[in-house]
Design brief:
13 helices, Multidrug efflux transporter AcrB transmembrane fold, Alpha-Beta Plaits, elongated, alpha+beta, six-stranded antiparallel sheet
């Protein structure tokens, strides 16, 4: 019976942990990708990320089942629709087809990029050279804008090329290029209205600053119990220009005061619009009636089943509003440097080709190794180690929620190829006719492998910036693969070879 060494046990434990991270999923139903914020489905409580199990008692196991269950819409009168989700039961009354976009439930926690899932990718270059903080603000604003339009599965990150130019990379699953181009080409328009009158707009003309990350003028005020859970209130300060402050005073001077259970407020709310779409409505405190002030306090609340949930919801709502208010104050002109689209069918074809190629490579490597060494145990050890490295790389990618695109998958394959090369070095050293001990020969092989590891790392680092970061996935997964090899699989494989060679 083969005695397992510590290094082999480490490999086994790492593989088990990777399996737990990847988490194969066999749950039935369909996943909600997006819900129109102005629809009855949204008002009933349905949200992105929930899993639909049944509609009006009809079990939903596929997208086709979901479509068939909604075939009766549109109707002449409002129809009751009961949607059973994993998170609860939701009742809708509607004439129109519920504005819900669904997809298959992912079979694992591994996330795939546009090359596999399909969608659009835009490489955006801001006008002028922005600082890192300005670029991060632009990304926050752009994310908010795209969320307002109901788009999901959005990845927005800063990137740069080898010449030092800063870019913003946007990837959206399911969006076509024309939609993406229209959304990111517009600089954005923010308006705050009371009734039909515009009080102020975003930008330097009306908004001097918005308080963020400063407890003296921004934060969660209080949390308390309400019917059905907890509620937390937030507040933050917005500084207006003198002209905007006077206009605010003129409009509020004509309003009445309402006394409610939540306090004394004016009878009209402050409505916030982004690109002519209502994103929130806020109460106006009684003490602001007819008052010329360049400093106004915006309040709101968040709710949840627990105090922690309510606090997190309030904090998220506050950050969202702050970002929306800043939107107009970042009037950067954007240029689309590159715009790509990938069909989901092409992604399926790519996946099928990768699997076919993997099978061919597996057979070819197995045959070559068996012909070279004439030992089934050695051939099996190399193949199993090679696939262990790939599996561990996938586990780490799932853990850090990295989207696996075509370059990322190519990086995994490159890592597997490097692994086979290193294993052949170990085997050749172990079976050589050298007079030194097997332990010394294995140590010499590992020294060669460590040298090759640092060479690969040095070669991959420039790819994080080459092509404005579009090859980052290849560099990252290659580095993960060779790092897994040098830390876990190569030492374990060396011990396996020692055991086989005895």
């Amino acid at each position: 019976m083969m005695k397992l060494t510590i290094r082999i046990w480490i490999l086994i434990i790492a593989l088990v942990l990777a399996l737990l991270v990847i988490k194969p999923n066999f749950e039935s139903g369909v996943l909600i990708k997006s819900v129109d914020s102005n629809s009855s489905a949204f008002e009933s409580g349905l949200r992105s990320g929930q899993i639909i199990k049944a509609i009006d008692g009809q079990e939903i196991t596929s997208i086709e089942d979901f479509s068939k269950a909604l075939e009766k819409f549109p109707t002449e009168e409002k129809t009751k629709l009961i949607i059973t989700a994993k998170e609860g039961t939701f009742t809708l009354f509607t004439k129109e087809t519920p504005q819900i976009t669904v997809s298959k439930i992912p079979s694992t926690s591994i996330k795939f990029g546009l090359d596999i899932a399909g969608g659009s990718r835009a490489l955006i270059k801001p006008e002028g050279q922005l600082s890192a903080s300005e670029l991060n603000d632009l990304i926050a604003v752009t994310t908010e804008r795209l969320n307002v339009y109901g788009l999901t599965d959005i990845i927005i990150r800063p990137t740069s090329d080898l010449e030092g130019n800063n870019y913003m990379l946007i990837e959206i699953a399911g969006a076509n290029p024309s939609e993406l181009e229209e959304l990111v080409a517009k600089q954005g328009k923010f308006e705050a209205k009371i009734g039909n009158e515009t009080v102020f707009v975003g930008g330097k003309k009306d908004i001097a600053s918005v308080c963020r990350n400063d407890a003296s003028c921004s934060g969660i005020e209080a949390c308390y119990a309400v019917e059905g859970g907890q509620l937390c209130r937030f507040r933050f300060v917005v500084h207006l220009s003198e002209e905007a402050a006077k206009k605010h005073a003129d409009i509020t001077s004509k309003l009445e005061v309402n006394i409610t259970g939540e306090g004394r407020y004016l009878n009209e709310k402050l409505d916030l619009y982004l690109d002519d779409k209502l994103v929130d409505s806020l109460f106006i405190s009684e003490d602001l009636k007819g008052r010329v002030t360049t400093q106004i306090q915006i309040q709101g609340s968040g709710t949840g089943a627990s105090r922690e949930d309510a606090f997190n919801d309030a904090q998220k709502s506050m950050q969202k509003l702050q970002t929306v208010l800043i939107t107009g104050s970042l009037p950067y002109k954007l240029e689309i440097a590159k715009l790509d689209t990938i069909s989901p069918s092409l992604g399926k074809e790519f996946t099928r080709n990768i699997l076919t190629l993997g099978l061919v490579v597996f057979i070819a490597v197995s045959v070559v190794l068996f012909v070279k060494y004439r030992k089934v145990k050695i051939t099996s050890a190399v193949i199993l180690t090679m696939f262990s490295e790939a599996f561990l790389t996938l586990g780490i990618a799932a853990l850090i929620r990295w989207n696996l695109d075509a370059p990322s998958i190519a990086g995994i394959i490159a890592g597997m190829g490097t692994g086979v090369n290193d294993q052949i070095v170990i085997i050749d050293e172990s079976v050589s006719g050298d007079s030194s001990s097997l332990k010394e020969r294995i140590k010499r092989a590992l020294f060669i492998i460590v040298g090759a590891f640092f060479t690969i790392i040095a070669a991959m680092l420039p790819l994080f910036w080459a092509g404005a970061g579009l090859l980052r996935g290849f560099a990252l997964t290659t580095i993960i693969g060779v790092s897994v090899g040098i830390l876990i699989t190569r030492p374990a494989f060396a011990d396996i070879i020692k055991i086989i060679s005895r």
